[in-house]
Specification:
This protein is mostly beta strands and 309 residues long. It has a domain of 150 residues. Helices cover 7% and strands 57% of the residues. The protein contains one helix and 27 strands. The chain has a 24-stranded mixed sheet that branches. A three-stranded antiparallel sheet has the order 2-1-9, with helices on one face. The protein is flat.
Length: 309
């Protein structure tokens, strides 16, 4: 192990000398260490914006790239990043296809940072709406603003997804594998799956959500919603319930609900403890209240406390 650190230190020292010499010779270059090899990495980042013809559908397949889709003045695409890693696009009939794959750098040594992160930014005019958006991305942020489409499919890995102002139908599916999903001011139908989910000021209708970690819903409403958490906490604040087919299940974790509006309750818990607390009073195994209400919330937990205030 000591020999490994000595060799590594020598390589880094040599690399730093090369950087200083390169800068002295007028070369604005960084060095990268990839798989034990040292290479020169030129700082040639840039930003390119192109106006486009009208399109109805977007397909994006990228990695190590941030993606943003929103309203703007016209149909356009802006691409930022290193010249060698710049995403490409092709427009065929009513479809815009964007592809790109960045080269991940294990270690960068030098004084010159890239001016731009890898970015794809697409805009459409305010008075237009797309038929469909499909995004497959890894190691990059996905952000969609405004009610820009009614059908959306997002498959994102090792990255976060942000939706604001969306209104999507029940054919939509949003997944952030090993990432977070944040939704605000939206109407969401279909499916949502992520490591963690945070939703504010929104409506969940005809939807199934799955979270490997925490789920948080604030100042929102449920209608025919199925919420599942495998290992984490479910938190709800100021939630309005519509209809009788609303289900919450936590496999391993607590459920905390405050200021629930307009709803009957059907609560069950498999824990042996006094693990159901409603308005400060404890119950074992189950609690039912106002089951004939046209609006009903079914809450269950396999291992965790349920607290409703």
């Amino acid at each position: 192990m000591k020999k490994y650190y000595i060799i590594t230190s020598i390589l880094l020292f040599i690399a730093m000398i090369m950087v200083v010499v390169g800068a002295a010779l007028g070369g604005a270059k960084n060095l990268i260490v990839k798989n034990g090899h040292t290479e020169v990495f030129e700082n040639n980042s840039k930003e390119i914006k192109n106006n486009l013809k009208e399109f109805k559908k977007i397909n994006i397949n990228t990695s190590d790239t941030n993606v943003k889709v929103s309203y703007g003045k016209q149909f356009s695409i802006k691409r930022s990043g290193n010249n060698k890693e710049m995403s490409t696009y092709k427009q065929t009939d009513d479809v815009l296809n964007v592809n790109g794959e960045s080269t991940k750098l294990d270690t960068t040594i030098g004084f010159f940072n890239n001016k731009y992160d890898n970015l794809i930014e697409i805009t459409i005019p305010n008075n237009k709406k797309l038929d469909e958006i499909n995004i497959k991305n890894s190691d990059g942020r996905v952000e969609i603003s405004d009610d820009i489409t009614s059908k959306m499919t997002i498959n994102s890995k090792d990255s976060n997804v942000y939706l604001n102002g969306s209104d999507i139908n029940n054919e939509s599916y949003i997944e952030a594998d090993d990432g977070q999903i944040e939704i605000t001011n939206s109407i969401i139908r279909g499916g949502v799956k992520s490591e963690g989910i945070n939703i504010e000021n929104s409506q969940l209708k005809d939807i199934k959500t799955e979270s490997d970690d925490n789920f948080r819903l604030t100042n929102s409403s449920l209608q025919n919603a199925d919420i599942f958490v495998s290992d984490g906490t479910i938190e709800m604040y100021q939630v309005n319930v519509n209809g009788k087919d609303n289900k919450i299940f936590n496999n391993d974790g607590d459920i905390k609900i405050n200021q629930l509006k307009n709803s009957g309750l059907n609560i069950s818990n498999n824990s042996d403890d006094d693990s159901i607390i409603v308005q400060g009073k404890s119950y074992k195994k189950e609690f039912k209240n106002d089951e004939t209400n046209t609006n009903l919330l079914n809450i269950s937990s396999k291992d965790g406390q349920i607290n409703v205030n």
